[in-house]
Amino acid sequence: MTMPREHTDVMRVLRGLEHGSPAVRLRTALAVGAAPDPRFVDELVERCAVEPDFHVRDMLTWALTRHPSSLTVPKLVEALRSERAQARSQALHTLSKIGDGRAWPAVTRALLTDADDEVARSAWRAAVVLVPEGEEPWLAAVLVTQLGRGGRETRLSLSRALIALGEEVVMPVLGTATTASDPRVRGHAIATERLSRDPDAGSGFAVEEAKRIVLLGTTGREADRPC
User: Fold this and answer.
1) Which of 59, 72, 58 lies closest to 122 in space, CA to CA?
2) pLDDT tens-digit readout, 160-219
3) Interatomic CA distance for residues 13 and 11, integer angstroms
4) 54-103: pLDDT as tens digits
5) d(Cα 80, Cα 220) in Å, to the nearest integer?
6) What angle (nearest 5°) sits at the alpha carbon of residue 180, between those of residues 172 and 120?
């Protein structure tokens, strides 16, 4: 008995996305994105949760952005409830690329403070893209609670997310954080302030300057005074 063509096409794509070769998976995701088809949305979202190769994951995200957001956003929001960290992280990343504000309610405090650094970083990036007007102060208040967490890349991601919310929203909460009792929080807040004033300075410079300031027991303003 001959299978319907629609079933055959889905099985072909499924085999391509699960192939042992990353090159084959990459070509399959590219082909699906080049010729969007609603039948493949579920497979793309499911593959995002388990795909080990960064470049393939990026292509899967691109393929999803090529489909109508009315189809992809609900599936991606559903993936945010997954117990698998990569499923949450990649769904957030893809939502940030789609940029559909209807996904904003799904970017919860729990995701913004997720114990997994990659999930949290993806949530921060998605949040600053999706946040509706008027919700920026709430978002800044949540993000500032994450100051001092993780390694260099995590701290830089948080600094960039805070800066993206705008000076009027962020500077008051950063100012408070620069006097925090935790030196990691204090240093990260100072580094973020400096980075906002001079984005070209680079995160390495800002972080090292913050460490120096904290060790000296001074604030950012005091360190800027001439000798």
Assistant:
1) 58
2) 999 999 999 999 999 999 999 999 999 999 999 988 888 766 556 455 655 655 565 554
3) 5
4) 999 999 999 999 999 999 999 999 999 999 999 999 999 999 999 999 99
5) 38
6) 75
- Tell me how long the chain is: 227
Question: What contacts 213, CB < 8 A, 6 or more positions away?
Answer: 187, 190, 219, 220, 223
Tokens read off for 165:
């919310």
Measured between alpha carbons, how far is 207 from 218 in angstroms, rounded to an integer? Answer: 15
Closest CA to 91 of 133, 135, 134, 41: 41
Q: Distance between CA 32 and CA 48 in Å, rounded?
A: 14
Under a CB-based contact definition with an 8 Å cutoff, are residues 172 and 181 in contact?
A: no
Query: Following DSSP, what letter does each residue of 18-50 receive, concatenated?
Result: T-S-HHHHHHHHHHHHHS--GGGHHHHHHHHTT
Q: How far is CA 31 from CA 1, 94, 171, 194, 209, in A?
A: 28, 18, 45, 44, 47
Q: Indicate the SS3 state at residue 208.
A: helix
- What are the Cα distances from residue 127, in Å, to 8, 21, 68, 99, 105? 39, 34, 21, 10, 10
